[in-house]
Fold:
Amino acid sequence: MLAYIVRRLLYAIPILVGVNLLTFVLFFVVNSPDDMARMQIGVKRATPEAIERWKVERGYDRPLLVNTEAKGLERVTDTIFFDKSLRMFAFDFGQADDGRDIGREIRTRMGPSLAIALPTFALGLFAAVSMALLLVFFRATYLDFWGVVLCVGMMSISSLFYIIGGQWLVSKLWALVPISGYAGGLDAARFLVLPVLISVIGGVGSSVRWYRTLFLEEISRDYVRTARAKGLSELAVLFRHVLKNAMIPILTGVVVLIPLLFLGSLLVESFFAIPGLGSYTIDAINAQDFAVVRAMVFIGSLLYIVGLILTDLSYTLVDPRVRLG
Amino acid sequence: MMAGFQPVLLWTDALLFLLLLAGVGVVLHARAQPPLRQAWRKVGERATGMVSACVLGVFIVIGVMDSLHYRPQLAQLEGAAGPSETYSAEVLSLLDRVLEPLRLNTEKTYSAPLAATLYQRETVETGGGQVRTYPRLQHGGAHLQAPEAEFAPDLARRLGHAAGLAVVASVALLAALAVGLAARHGGPIRAAAAVLAGRTVLAWRAAWVACSIIALVVAVVVMLAPYYHVLGTDKVGQDVLYLSLKSVRTALVIGTVTTLVMLPFAIALGIAAGYLGGWVDDAVQYVYTVLNAIPSVLLIAAAVLMMQVVIDTHPHWFGTAAERSDARLLALCFILGITSWTGLCRLLRGETLKLRELEYVQAARAFGVGTTGILRRHILPNVMHIVLIALVMDFSGLVLAEAVLSYVGIGVDPTTISFGTMINLARAELAREPMVWWSLAAAFVFMFVLVLAANLFADVVRDAFDPRWR
Structure:
């Protein structure tokens, strides 16, 4: 087991290097730092001096890959690639354009993001699995048919409308919760109810449909017939056999998402003005703050890889036949 | 009136037409191949398949009309020197031409659907002094003398006309169907009866009902649009119906061109990785794991930011504003394509792994058929159903993604009319007092109908082509 985890972690390194190279090419080779400076300062005010000052301030005045002027190890370390890309592996993300430390910002903003993402994730999973089981229990009836129709309908509504509609109905018309904002501690619940509810409702359509097909596939297997033949009730079959055996595909889709919860949801957080990582990313995109976007890309890919490993480990928990090695 | 015009072929137009051509090719090919014809017939046998195809067809017609671009010739000034023919810098489309009254009849600001006055009071100079009142619109309901009294009868009259037109169209459609199916059912009368009773092989009754409803909606719009703002106007007085119809093309381009862009990569790499194995497989898997590892919104955001810089720093590449926003639209398609080919690639790799071990492929290899020959003749045709299913399933997701990305500001150019930019502009209007709801409602309804039709169609296609499903 331990050997397996170590090997998987070693596999992760080339992938992270790939991600890093890709973002490096995207951010610094496709566009030179000069272009970036011009965008930031504004094309009209971008004199050569202003561009130079902008680059020096942010450390973009060095060569990209090899510094021919420096000596020894500095030939490699005193470059944009080393400073802006390789340092990320040490979780040193540098400064955002507004001068704040990105690492600290990420640590403080992780809390609010998790406060929304974890309940959303848990409630969403629970709602989707139980509704899918319900549809499967009543399969080939009108309830099943209209349930699927409802799911397809809900899938066809853009998430923007769930948020806009929910905010308008619950916060403005009924005035049950504040429209947006955030507070620390227990006070946060007031602000969190609506975004969590909206995210759950917005995502339930497609996941119910997905779980329903999973369960239907499982229910046509031989062991289910055996279970029914020995006199188990349909409910027992569904919960004790079908749900248990459908765990592997469920885990495959779900566990990868858990680490990504840290990143929060771009849309929900920015609509509800929640100071999490999602809204941080959106603000950085709008402000064209490349350092922040790169840091988020790096963290995102790191978490994805962690998720993949967790997925494989979780298989051993639900299915003793799976041996990792 | 317009004297002449200069046709303009934007990049996305060219790709869209290429896709249409490919679609026609697929139809012709499917007709010649019995198994494919069988599968498509299954699509036609289902009422949902026929209805969603009809609805999608309407959207495609709108999108194609909006993709025939041209630059109108400018009227020659009296005695002006210079070239004999000058063309406007503005790029219009056939749809713009058809909707000319909607495009040009802009009001001052918000007006409600079918209103004859502005939505908010303004101070108006009358002969005697100033009055706070709702000013009359310049175009909406301008033909009415006294809107309060005349509006209802006028509306009823026009709706009556529309209903009449729709009934005529519906009967004509039924007649055309009856004539078309006459040979199969022994005479047009019997064929018509079979359609009405739902006894035809394909679900023609459902299609007929759907087309009749579409005809009714179109007739109502055609009767009302020249005289009223059917869906109201937005903040700068643009007709919301016009904006909604223009958004359709953007959604279609994103939904289809993106898949066109990614398809060659996905197919070539997926099949090569699955069939060749070894280092090719490792390399392809590495590439798609790296791309998958980056949260797609961030990858898109990063790429769009970069592209924006490139476009902004090279203004001389683009002759007109339309070309510029088109370049941005195309780039967005590329970027979305790059982030979305990995899923299909993985599916194709898995399927190819399975296929290469089958007897007939092994036999072909034993007979000395070359690798390219096997890939082209045995593997490719046998994975095409996966490609087709992925194509139709991805479409709705991409349309939804466009709206979200444009809303976030990393989607289409802000000057391109799309559902995302419409929602973005309309969002603040809900907070107004009294509320302005029609822009959002229009974007919602149009998007919902389009995506719902696409989802339903995709389901039917998957059922027909994927034997393992259900």
In short: The first strand of chain B starts at residue 5 and ends at 8. Chain B has a mean pLDDT of 86. The beta strands of chain B are 5-8, 69-72, 92-93, 122-125, 130-133. Chain B touches chain A through 47 residues (CB under 8 Å).
